[in-house]
């Protein structure tokens, strides 16, 4: 059971919260809001009966409902599902949305989510505030949900021109109640920045790891791999399905970043070929200074 | 002061040890042998007076001597200096080598070291057993020296056909006394394997980090970078001079590995361009399985 606090005499931010997808991300959001005393009742929606049952057992969710009922009752709905299934569940909920209901999501890319939401919701897209909590963990599913997951994390919102200020304010307040810092950004900027600092490391780590594993002497290589290898490849162990979807969803931004990475790789390889120590050192200095200057080492 | 134990009534493996370069690697070797009671006296050789003085203050080294005197007195000499300066110091020591003296080194690449040793030592190269302790740390210099650095680490020896079995056995026994596991390999295999699992991650991490840092919106990117980025780029903060020398020293093997990495990168990028989810997922699965199967997570 997740403990519950409630500021005396103050109405919670959300009377009924619906969470579509009660895994790590959705379950942690519900748990954090409950711990902050900012939610009345939590409705769980999803396609995986085992996850839903575990979410109820853990006290993340009070009740399991169909999307239509969630739409009728909830003051806020968080979609924490793969973008592939988003359009369908939005279309089911659209005719039933409670007046004033605010919708938000937790997808890792935003341009595709916005397009899907516009297509599925029509004019009701004004209620949809796209978001992305930058928090992940090795573990997934309701058992991994943690009311502290979002503390000191950043949540990016990519508001639509149609979003009324109250809708934006409500989503912002909920994430802040979870302990997160909230920033706004347009969807294109979000996708470019995340392609660079989140998706590209996963792509490169997987490419590198696959190359090592495909070598005829892979076992000998892996036996001599040390701590540098360990850290560099850690993220290559992530969920293949999830990362496939993220890469495809953010394809245009990834392609642009890949071209930029290749340009630097070409320079570095040329310096190596030419035995150009000065050029190699300049590149390594640039990288080392930037990395040493990065302040988030403790996160 | 490093504490000293000495198995009662048993002669130590090395009566007088000379360490050329008394930083992390050389200082830790001396400290570990001393703690194991396997060394009589430690002679320090080097070009940096501050490092030599600190090594004496910390009890890593008993006495500072010139290379010629170290050659005359030492039963074992460890070269823990950049490969660039190795030929010169070997040439100075060669005419003075005590009969039966064994020479070894700790360089990160082996083909270039072997060539330099052959050129500098002539027939005396039989006394030179090339080695590479696979252990590093963020810190450098005699203050970072640690008698436990080599415990449960691997040391690769790349013996020469000329090495007498006694020389090889002495070097092996010393590293084992430091707590390391010792394996033999030919120099070419060593350089290929290390290019893959040690040098390539540093090269790619630096290329990636330099690309992010060069973006016009680098500050915004770095502000949103999280734990995946943190681990993937950690090694990009390493010493630019040291890694420049390693890349150049292992140039041929690095170029071969880069070609193999590019081939997988090309495949992955093509799958992305084509929106080929099955191909992307196959690559990600291959990488994830290989990484999850790697057993050294705890190192």
Topology summary:
Two copies of one chain form a homodimer.
Chain A: E1 14-20, H1 24-35, E2 39-45, H2 49-57, E3 63-64, H3 67-73, E4 76-79, H4 86-93, E5 102-105, H5 111-121, E6 128-129, E7 131-134, E8 154-157, H6 165-177, E9 181-184, H7 187-214, H8 218-224, H9 227-233, H10 240-249, H11 251-273, H12 277-293
Parallel strand pairs in A: 1-2, 1-4, 2-3, 4-5, 5-6, 8-9
Antiparallel strand pairs in A: 7-8
Helix pairs in contact in A: 3-4, 4-5, 7-11
Descriptive notes:
The structure is a homodimer of 299-residue chains. Chain A is 51% helix and 13% strand. The first copy, chain A, has helices at residues 24-35, 49-57, 67-73, 86-93, 111-121, 165-177, 187-214, 218-224, 227-233, 240-249, 251-273, 277-293, and strands at 14-20, 39-45, 63-64, 76-79, 102-105, 128-129, 131-134, 154-157, 181-184. In chain A, helix 3 (67-73) packs across helix 4, helix 4 packs parallel to helix 5 (111-121) and helix 7 (187-214) crosses helix 11. The first copy, chain A, has 2 domains: 14-185, NAD(P)-binding Rossmann-like Domain (Rossmann fold, 3-Layer(aba) Sandwich); 189-293, 6-phosphogluconate dehydrogenase C-terminal fold (Orthogonal Bundle), CATH 1.10.3660. Chain A contains 12 helices and 9 strands. Chain A has 299 residues and is an alpha/beta fold. Chain A has a 6-stranded parallel β-sheet, with helices on both faces. Chain A is elongated. In chain A, strand 5, helix 5 (111-121) and strand 6 form a beta-alpha-beta unit. The mean pLDDT of chain A is 94. Chains A and B meet through helix 7, helix 8, helix 9, helix 10 and helix 11 of A and helix 7, helix 8, helix 9, helix 10 and helix 11 of B.
């Amino acid at each position: 059971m997740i403990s519950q606090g409630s500021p005396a005499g103050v109405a919670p931010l959300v009377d009924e919260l619906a969470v579509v997808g009660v895994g790590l991300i959705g379950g942690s959001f519900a748990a954090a809001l409950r711990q902050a005393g900012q939610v009345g009742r939590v409705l769980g929606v999803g396609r995986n009966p085992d996850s839903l049952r575990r979410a109820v057992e853990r006290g993340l969710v009070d009740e399991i409902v169909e999307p239509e009922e969630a739409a009728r009752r909830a003051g806020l709905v968080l979609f924490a599902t793969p973008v592939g299934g988003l359009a369908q569940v939005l279309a089911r909920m659209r005719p039933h949305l409670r007046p004033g209901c605010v919708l938000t999501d937790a997808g890792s890319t935003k341009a595709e989510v916005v397009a899907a939401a516009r297509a599925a919701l029509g004019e009701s897209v004004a209620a949809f505030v796209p978001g992305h909590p930058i928090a992940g963990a090795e573990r997934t599913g309701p058992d991994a949900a943690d009311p502290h997951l979002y503390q000191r994390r950043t949540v990016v919102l990519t508001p639509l021109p149609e979003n009324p200020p109250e809708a934006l304010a409500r989503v912002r307040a909920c994430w802040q109640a979870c302990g997160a810092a909230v920033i706004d950004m347009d969807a294109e900027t979000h996708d470019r920045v995340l392609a660079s600092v989140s998706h590209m490391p996963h792509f490169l780590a997987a490419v590198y790891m696959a190359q090592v594993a495909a070598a005829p002497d892979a076992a000998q290589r892996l036996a001599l791999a040390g701590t540098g290898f360990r850290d560099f490849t850690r993220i290559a162990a992530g969920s293949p399905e999830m990362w496939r979807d993220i890469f495809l969803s953010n394809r245009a931004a990834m392609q642009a970043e890949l071209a930029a990475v290749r340009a630097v790789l070409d320079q570095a390889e040329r310096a190596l070929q030419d035995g150009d120590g000065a050029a190699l050192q300049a590149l390594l200095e640039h990288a080392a200074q930037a990395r040493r200057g990065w302040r988030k080492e403790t996160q």
